[in-house]
Amino acid sequence: MRPIEWSRSSRAECVVAALLIAAAAWFSVPWLARYVRDAARLASMPYDARRDRVSGGFTASLRKIDRELPVGEPVALVLSGARDIDLMVFANYYLYPRPAHEFFGAGHWRVTPNAPKHILLIDSARTHEVRLAKDFYEARFELARGRWITSERALSPPMQDFIVPLAATLEGSVSYATEAVLSGDATVTFEPSGVTKDVHGAFESTDTIYELFRTTGAGWLHITAPSTVRAGFWLTNRANEKSAPLPLLATLPPLPQRVSGGDSLWLLNAGDGEAHVIVDGTARTIAPHALDRIAATGAHEISGTGRVLAFTSSKDAQGQTHFGWPEGVR
Amino acid sequence: MNGLLFTILWFPLLGLAVSRLTGRAPIFLLGVGTCGFVLFVAGVLGAPLVPVLIVLGLAAIAVLLSRKALERRGLPRWSLLPGEASPAAPLFLALIPAAALLFISAVTPLSDYDGRAFWLLKAKALAHEGVVGGPFFHGATISPRNAYPLLLPLDGATIMLAAGELDEQHVRWLYSLIALSFALLLGRRLQWWCAPLFLLLPQVVLMHQGSALTAYSDLAVGAFTACAFFELLDGESPLRFGLWIAFIAMTKSEGLPLSALLFAIGAIVFRRRIVVALAPYAIAVGTVLAWRRSVPLSDEMDFASLIRTVPQHLPQLRACIAAIAGEFADLQDWGVLWLAFVAAMLVLLARREWRLPALAAAVIVPMLALYAAVYAVSPYDLPTLSGDLAPRILTHLLGPAFAVISGAFARSR
């Protein structure tokens, strides 16, 4: 085949070429000029500072973490959800050659054998800065912060001194947390450990025990307030996104109490001394401020003396917790 | 600055050496392709990068100093200075966006998606591990699109190795200079006004996905495709043609079908001489296939299987064709370039000039049909196709498009 040979430019060609160039320039030149101005503003900065400016703090947070961790140790990039994949990909780029592995949620990290011990949290809905979590529960707390499982958060009537019979931050086959709303100043005590925390102003939490006390486990809460507050507490299973309301009790129902069956029978001693009770005919002593859990069968009758609350809990196939409360508790 | 110096010396050095053996060609693009090609082939065979680079550099110098190689081959029979007027005006026009492009690349850190997610991450890994197929590609860390071809990442790794650090700032120049070489190629091989037009196209100089300001591989595919297409028009050097299509196959996944199509057209143009092109091309295809088999797949889609489900995706196929056709008229991406291409095709056909439109259509139409089919069966949504993918696939086909537009002003002798 013979090659094509071009003739010399004609006037028409020059005009058409000018039009083609002008049409392209019409759209590109203003933006190009803007990019040049932006680049000129960055030019005097060190390269890392330019990167930080362009990334909005993302790269700075990664560089800080990278300096804090031992060289070459792998990290877990734990995402709050699929929306964080892009940031995860970029974090992986900036962290290289540090090995990184992605995890969708703290629970995924927890159940993965040999997962890297350093947890980097990526939560683009809240911030583009990557944070280093000190452990699994902090990762879980941070990723759950502000993401409510309970959709309708109805508050109690005004109260000043009351207990929440069950509160937990637990991770197992399910992922328990306690969601809470308090409308004003209050002192919250986590029993039976007795740790106390003052909250000021309106308080909302999707993982109350961890947020207030930086601890984990199950117990109950004693709340006192200088003036009445309205409140709401819910036990949530974050793994299945299920929520169960918890009663707020200014007084406990008198013994004997009867509760329906469930997986677990809980015995709460709100008093400062030991409580001696009889559970289905068997004597039992409950330590002060304790919350004992025993296997439940059918309905139970609890009699004896002391400021005691008995209740049962069970979890259905969907991960929803159901409580059985004695008469007079709602 | 080390990266810039190395980039403007190393790739032209290689390109010049290879062009001494194959005949004149755009030396920067030839160097970019050759470096990646050699490292990819040697790497898949197990050779470490640094020794291969040393041998490659010494071989290039030896070729350039060799008396025999200095006997240059003839230039292509295309006019270099096509217009009656001096090329000063279009050159000056091209210098403005070129300078802007270089300045922005020099100063602004990378902020695009694919560049950070895949291409320069792979470049970092290759430079860090010093081998092709090291732990990075076998699960040591996150490696999205693990089995993507490595020609450009190997070029990037070469620059990082020379600069002594795994930092994108040394590699930013590579992508700008590929665009500038592409512009120069269009200006020299077609008409000089093509150079400023190319460098003022928003999709080429601005866009966040696939422009010269990013580390995407689409402009490189477009440049190599343009080179291969011009070799088809020249019909002179099946060896150079084979090299260009080899580079295409090794640059992006879609380079494999694109290069296969070009090879098929080349078989018609070059007839028996196509066996010369087969040598580098077969090596490239063999390397890419061997590479894909040697590493675990990550999140790559199995398009070879998906494409068989096109009959079940006819409504999506129609929508994809419409989206790609709509991209022709997207002024914000292309100005009126692709509309001019359509008009130029009509002008050529009206003049009963068949060869150029036939060659261009033979490349563009099947590729767009293939892209439409692939996107129809892929999980990409239409806005992604229109906003991201369609502009990039048209970038691959800019060489034939410019040739047609330019050819509409030419008269066959």
Keywords:
heterodimer, A: alpha+beta, 8-stranded antiparallel sheet, 4-stranded mixed sheet, elongated, B: 413 residues, mainly alpha, 70% helix
Question: What features would you describe in this structure?
Answer:
The complex is a heterodimer of chains A (330) and B (413). Chain A is elongated. In chain A, 25% of the residues lie in helices and 36% in strands. With 330 residues, chain A is α+β, with helices and mostly antiparallel strands. Chain B is mostly helical and 413 residues long. Helix content of chain B is 70%, strand content 0%.
Task: Give a concise summary.
Chain A is of the alpha+beta class and 330 residues long.
Itemize the secondary structure elements and their pairings.
The complex is a heterodimer of chains A (330) and B (413).
Chain A: H1 11-42, H2 47-55, H3 58-68, E1 75-79, H4 85-95, E2 100-104, H5 106-111, E3 118-122, E4 131-133, H6 136-144, E5 159-171, E6 175-182, E7 186-191, E8 195-199, E9 203-205, H7 208-213, E10 217-229, E11 231-237, E12 242-246, E13 257-259, E14 264-269, E15 275-279, E16 282-286, E17 291-295, E18 300-304, E19 308-315, E20 321-324
Parallel strand pairs in A: 1-2, 1-3
Antiparallel strand pairs in A: 3-4, 5-6, 5-10, 6-9, 6-11, 7-8, 7-10, 11-12, 13-18, 14-17, 14-19, 15-16, 15-18, 19-20
Chain B: H1 2-22, H2 27-44, H3 49-65, H4 88-107, H5 113-129, H6 151-163, H7 172-189, H8 194-200, H9 202-205, H10 218-234, H11 238-251, H12 255-270, H13 274-294, H14 303-306, H15 314-328, H16 331-334, H17 337-350, H18 355-377, H19 382-396, H20 398-407
Helix pairs in contact in B: 1-2, 1-3, 1-6, 2-3, 2-6, 2-11, 2-13, 4-7, 4-8, 5-6, 7-8, 7-10, 10-11, 10-12, 10-19, 10-20, 11-12, 11-13, 12-13, 12-18, 15-18, 15-19, 17-20, 18-20
